[in-house]
Design a protein that fits this description.
YaeB-like fold, two-stranded antiparallel ribbon, globular, five-stranded mixed beta sheet
Amino acid sequence: MPIINKAKTLLWTTHAKGKMSFYKLSEQRIRRVLHSPYRIEEGIAPNTIAMMQPASIRTVANKQKWTQEIWVMIQETKTRRKIISAWRYPGMTKQGEPLPEEIIRELKTGLGKY
C-alpha cells in the first residue's frame, strides 16, 4: 500500500489578504503561482521563498516577454505553508539569487502532492 502524504495546509496572513485585495489577485491565482512558478528565488525576509509567474506571456522573435509579474512570498514549515505577501509587479525583473538545488527539489516534491 503506497503512503500518501497529506498536502501542506496554506496559512494566509492578513497582510497577504490585504495585498491580494489591493492588486486584485484571487486565492486561486496565488495557488497557481505556488503550484507552477516560473522562477523561485530566496525571499528578502529571513527564511522566506519568493515565487514568480508572469501574468501573461507572449512570444516575440522566439523570446518570451511579459508586462506584469505576480510574486508570492512564502515561509515553509513541515506541516504548513505560510503565505506572507503577494503582489503584482509592472514589468520584467532580472533574475536574482536562485535557491539551492536541494531546496528546489524539496519544493517540487511537495508541489506534486496537490
